[in-house]
Amino acid sequence: MLRGKSRLNVEWLGYSPGLLLDDGPPPPGRTPRNPIRNESSLASTLKTLLFFTALMITVPIGLYFTTKSYVFEGAFGMSNRDSYFYAAIVAVVAVHVVLALFVYVAWNEGSRQWREGKQD
Q1: Which of 6, 11, 39, 65 has a CA between 20 and 30 Å from the CA of residue 54?
Q2: pTM value?
Q3: Which parts of the chain are beta strand (E)?
Q4: Closest by alpha carbon to 94, among 102, 50, 71?
């Protein structure tokens, strides 16, 4: 029999050792989760992950070259060496913003799925 954290993880997935061994109907409140909802939840999570992966690649690189060429060298007239430095700072800030947005979206998506699971 599983104990502690492992048992919680198995039950969180909708299965428990008792459900797999019993021949009769499962007790109320311990039914396996709907596999269709799990698949749609997984697809939604994968789409979110891929979206933020694309953002993590494109936004910092795009902002680096855009701010270096047009903002720091073009508008402010900075030297090539200074523009590298400040454009790198902008790219690092962009990475942190994308990560913060990902955490926010993932947190809200997880709590939404948790609320939907509690209503069943």
Answers
A1: 39
A2: 0.62
A3: none
A4: 102
**Cα-to-chain-centroid distance, residue 11:** 22
CA gap 33, 64 in Å, rounded = 46
Q: 55 with 97: CB under 8 angstroms?
A: no
- Token pair recorded at residue 88: 């790198």
* Tens-level pLDDT at each residue, the chain (120 residues): 555 554 445 455 555 555 555 455 656 665 555 555 567 888 888 999 999 999 999 999 999 999 999 999 999 999 999 999 999 999 999 999 999 999 999 899 877 767 766 665
Question: For residue 25, which amino acid is it?
Answer: P
Comparing CA positions, the residue from 55, 54, 87, 51 lying closest to residue 68 is: 87
| Integer Cα distance of 19 and 117 in angstroms | 19
| Structure-block tokens of residue 22 | 């019993």
**43: which 2 tokens?**
């697809």
